[in-house]
Amino acid sequence: MENEQRMPSENPRKNGIYLLPNLLTTAALFAAFYSIVAAMKGLFDIAAMAIFVSMIADGLDGRVARMTNTESEFGAQYDSLSDMVAFGVAPALVVYSWSLSNLGKFGWLVAFVYAAATALRLARFNTQLVDADKRYFQGLPCTAAAPVIAGMVWLGGDYDVNGILVAIPAAIITFLMAVFMVSRIRYYSFKKLDFKGKVSFFVVVLLMLIIAGVAAAPAQVLFITFLLFAFSGPVMTLWQLRKVRYNRRHR
Questions:
Q1: What is the pLDDT, as a whole number, of residue 83?
Q2: Burial class, 49, CB count within 10 angstroms (exposed 0-12 / middle 13-18 / buried 19+)
Q3: At what angle do helices 142-158 and 90-98 cross, to 10 degrees?
Q4: 22 Cβ partners below 8 Å, 6+ apart?
Q5: Helices 105-127 and 73-84 meet at what angle, rounded to 10?
C-alpha cells in the first residue's frame, strides 16, 4: 500500500540509489503523468486505466525493495512524492476534467480538497510509521481512494455517460473519499495476511471468481470492490460503537 519503501535504520548507503525499486516508482509516476495528459485530450477511460497501472507499479516497488534488501530513505521519499502525483493530483484532475468542471468553482474546489486530503494523508502516514498499528490504516489509504475515483470515470466511459449528467454524484463521491482519507476511521491493512500459509478451498474459489470478474468487467468490478472497501471503515466503526453502547446498557 502507501509508501512501503522504508529505510533500514542501520548502515544506510551514502552514495548512489538502488535501480530496480526506484525504476518501478518512476513507472508509477509516468503512468500518473500519462493519465493527466490523456484526460486533457478527453481520453478519460484511458486516463482512468493509467491510474490503475500506476497503482500496480506502486504496489510492486516497496515489495521489490524489501525482497532485494534495497530499501532506502531516498526510495521512501521518492515513493511518497510519486504517490502524491499518482493518487492525489492525477485522480483530482481526471475527475475534474471529466465531470467536476461542469460545476464551476465548486467543482475545482472539490478536486482541490481531494488533492489536499491526499497530501495530508501521506504526511500523517509518514509520521506515524513507528507507533502505528500495522493491522490497520488510520484513514482511507490514498491507494484505495484513487481507484474509486478512477473506477468511477472508467465506468462512465464504458457506459458512454456524459460527465455533466453525474457531476453532483461525482462531487459527492470525490468529497467523501477526501473525508475518509483524513479521518481517524480504521481500515484493515491486510499486512498480517499469511500468503505462504494454507487457505480453505472456498478462498481459492472466491479469488478465482474475483479474477474472472475483473477480466470480464474490469471497470465495474474494480469500482465496486474499492467503493465497498472505502465504506467498510465507517460501517465497521459504527458497528463497533453500537456494540460498545449495547454492552454499557447491559452491564
A1: 96
A2: buried
A3: 30
A4: 61, 74, 75, 78
A5: 160
Question: 193 exposed, middle or buried (CB, 10 Å; 0-12, 13-18, 19+)?
Answer: exposed
pTM: 0.87
* Spatial separation of the C-alpha atoms in residues 39 and 104, rounded to whole Å: 18
- What topology does CATH give the domain 19-249? Four Helix Bundle (Hemerythrin (Met), subunit A) (1.20.120)
The Cα–Cα gap between 246 and 251 comes to 9
Q: Residue range 229-245: average pLDDT?
A: 88
- Residues making up the chain, counted from first to last: 251
For residues 48 and 151, the answer to whether their CB atoms sit within 8 Å is yes
pLDDT for 74 beyond 50? yes
Half-sphere exposure of 64 (CA within 13 A, CB side): 16
Distance CA 186, CA 234 (A): 8
Cell of 27: 513507472
What single-letter amino acid sits at 157?
Answer: G
